[in-house]
Amino acid sequence: MHNVSHELSVGDSVYEALRHDIIFGRLAPSAKLKLDRLKADYSVSIATLREALNRLVTEGFVKTEGQRGFFVAPMSAAGLREIADLRILLECHALKLSFEAGDTEWEARVIAAHHKLSRMEERMKSGDHSAKEVWKQYDWEFHQALISACGSEALLNVHGTVFDKYLRYQMRTLTFRGDPAAIEHRALLDSAMVRDISTAQSVLRKHIEGGVEHSLAQSG
Questions:
Q1: What is the CATH number of domain 77-219?
Q2: Which of 43, 83, 136, 201 is the least crowded, having the fewest Cβ atoms under 10 Å away?
Q3: How far apart are the C-alpha atoms of 31 and 127, rounded to whole Å?
């Protein structure tokens, strides 16, 4: 039983490590994932690697091509727009449910997450780009806090995967939009406090679409 638990722990660990490295660009889009190289880099067995890679195939971060093996999922402008549209659909729905059900504890989570993000955005605006991954982590935490009262674990899980796919595109350019993004985050906070779902959904669409256009402009 101990060995089984240990193996599951190792499998989860390498899955998380591979997923993180794909999202943050350490494993490049369309790159072939050579098992022998990954075995050495992540210090795990081939069997454990295959299990982790198949989980990532299910989520869409990795592709298989017949007998050719595993590849990091490719990226394209059309793919970014598709992921952004899906994120808007899911997050707008989750916002509505969360605004309707949110209580004082939820408000506190949203305020705390926005405080951390806004402080990091001030650093980014001042030219300090030394903690880019922390900035994106705080961005995720704020958006997650906004929808955390939606009452659906399945919705949160699906949204989390879609958000990470969107983040993967952002990490290719990883530049901060500056005041527009910060202003939109503040507007989302203000809308949450007064339960103004119409304004929040409108701001969210603008926020995500603005991120798409910024990413495409930076990569073009």
A1: 1.20.120.530
A2: 43
A3: 32
